[in-house]
Amino acid sequence: MSPIGGADGTIVVADLRKRYGELQAVDGVSFTVAEGEFFGILGPNGAGKTTTLEIVEGLREPDSGSVLLLGEKPWPRNPRLLPRIGVQLQASSFFDKLTAREQLETFAALYGVSRGDAADMLDLVGLADKANTREDKLSGGQRQRLSIACALAHDPDIVFLDEPTAALDPQSRRNLWDVLRVIQQRGKTIVYTTHYLDEAEILCDRVAIMDHGRILAMDSPAKLVRGLDAPTHVMLAEGVLSVEQAETIPGVEGVNADGVSLTLSTRTPAPVLAALAERGALDGLQVRTATLEDVFLHLTGREYRA
Amino acid sequence: MTSSARRGGTASSFRSLSTAMLKGFVRDRAGLFFVFLFPLMFLVVFGLIFGKEGGTKPKIGVVGDGPVVVALEQSGAVELERLGATDDAVRKVRDGDLPAAVLAHGDTVELRYAASDQTQAGLVRGIVGGVVDKVNIAASGQPPKVRLDSQQVEDSSLKAIQFLTPGLLSWAVSTSAIFGSAVTLVSWRRKQVLRRIRLAPVPVSTVLSSRLLVSMGIAVGQTALFIGVASTPVFGLSLSGQWWLALPLVMLGTLAFFAIGMFAGSFAKTEETATAAANLVVLPMAFLSGTFFPIQNAPGWLQAVSQALPLRHLTDGMLDVMVRGKGIEALAVPAAVLVGFAVVLGAVASRLFRWDDA
């Protein structure tokens, strides 16, 4: 299925299944992740992302299926493997009343790592000036970044992040994206879950879209979107062009006026834009190509709701 | 990783976990209050209330005058309150303001006492009766047939602080240990700190023993504080020869109650439940173990129940070595009971140990 990785992938997951009572939380999930890859598991809440991730991390035992991380089995608890993986948990879990630096040093010490790297890690996640601030005095975004720093404290090869950007304001989310990019540049393999499809499209090398415990599609975001063959939407301010005029432009497949803007659908955007330029109708023009949300809509037949 | 490097890792994990927990404890003001000041408040309040008990004399009302009243005054056994009228005195007794009143008119002496407090009534009747007899003998001019030579002996068990310090210290140590383990365990599970520790190559035993070390440090601090405060002249605790044997006993008590807390913490899902469970264990135990007041006067079956409680044995052992002047032989039974509780409940708790809520 995937050209990258194969049997010698850093992460090899085969046919995972996990049932909770009536709910089939994970229903036959397989994927491989190559070394240094940024892999995203996407889907709405309840899609089975977190359960999948927890099984891969070795926190839960699957009903069936197998996981290999760096050639090792994560379940049952495997102390040989643990130093090579770093996990950022969904809840920000810290020791009581310790400062950011103390949290990092304590977690590093659990792996027998010296304290010298703590400052470097705080710098990486942009918390150098908060080193002596207590964890409970940090903002949500800062706590999330500290949590990631703690997951990286022992310099693992694989980093798992569960919804790192959930519940963050837009500015904090963007700050975190920069952190995640730097981590990837350091050669780490990253597996992360999110319900923000736009974010995954920007960050991930490859994504798996999950719904109801299954992977519906898996590829690079660009290939998934291109594979859709969805029309490009060109939006103009209302009144720049009449609906009749718009319909006469060659290549326009549909026109929709909603009182605020006029939206033209086309699969050949270049000649359409040229024609609009000729008519001097480029003021306030916006072009929207298909996104992963359209992919999700196409795969499931329903609108994406995070 | 070589085995020596791994051992080094465990040692550094143990050190840094202990440091982290100690810092967390020291920075928690409410925690400090409940561990140190709250039990100390009990010591101070009980010490002041019961400290005077040995010196209080019954206070009785007196109406009129005469040789009996003079002799009562000289006896020093009672405090007298002079009252003007008989009605006044009787009303005060009836209202419970005074346990008794002596009404002296000439050679007749009447004693009116309240029936509600039999102990006080008996005491007052004895004293007044004795004084009346003395006056009668003196008036007869005969030498007394039997001479009573009474002298006071300073009995250490009389002083409340001698009893209160070991008892309240046992209670404080056991409460801190049980809360320290139960609430920490539950809070770490709920906040997923346990999950994070599970993801690190560190044994569970390292995590628990580092918390136990902090609890033991806290217990040593409580012991020093209690003995320090109780030894001040205000309270006047006098320790017996081998009082320092209290330290190993405090360590064993901490161990036992830490294990009990672990056991409670393996069931509780929230910190509130853990707190309630710990209270449910430790409060009745404190009352039944003679930590606040002596259990010797309780009915036999209650004393039997009390013998099954680890806190009873901790308290007994502490009393023995701190104020009763006993030596290391007094530690045998308490040590055996406390270690027994620690081993059994610790084993059960480790079987029930859960990293996660789900």
UniProtKB/TrEMBL annotation, chain A:
Source taxon at top rank: Bacteria
Cross-referenced Pfam families: ABC_tran (PF00005)
Chief location bin: membrane
Compartment(s): Cell membrane
Membrane topology summary: Peripheral membrane protein
UniProt keyword annotation of RNA-binding present: no
GO molecular function ontology, one term from the record: ATP binding
SUPFAM superfamilies: P-loop containing nucleoside triphosphate hydrolases
Annotated keywords: Antibiotic resistance, ATP-binding, Cell membrane, Membrane, Nucleotide-binding, Translocase, Transport
Domain ABC transporter residues, every copy: 11-237
Biological processes, Gene Ontology terms: response to antibiotic
GO CC, one annotated term: plasma membrane
Protein family according to the UniProt entry: Belongs to the ABC transporter superfamily.
Name of the protein in question: ABC-2 type transport system ATP-binding protein
Protein source organism: Streptoalloteichus hindustanus
Lineage: Bacteria, Bacillati, Actinomycetota, Actinomycetes, Pseudonocardiales
TrEMBL record, chain B:
Subcellular location as annotated: Membrane
Protein topology in the membrane: Multi-pass membrane protein
Domain ABC transmembrane type-2 span(s) in chain numbering: 125-356
Pfam families named among the record's database cross-references: ABC2_membrane_3 (PF12698)
InterPro entries given in the database record: ABC-2_transporter (IPR052902), ABC2_TM (IPR013525), ABC2_TM_bact-type (IPR047817)
MF terms in GO: ABC-type transporter activity
Transmembrane segments: 30-50, 168-188, 208-231, 243-264, 276-295, 331-353
GO cellular component terms listed in the entry, alphabetical order: membrane
Keywords: Membrane, Transmembrane, Transmembrane helix
PANTHER family in alphabetical order: DOXORUBICIN RESISTANCE ABC TRANSPORTER PERMEASE PROTEIN DRRC-RELATED, TRANSPORT PERMEASE PROTEIN
Annotated protein name in UniProt: ABC-2 type transport system permease protein
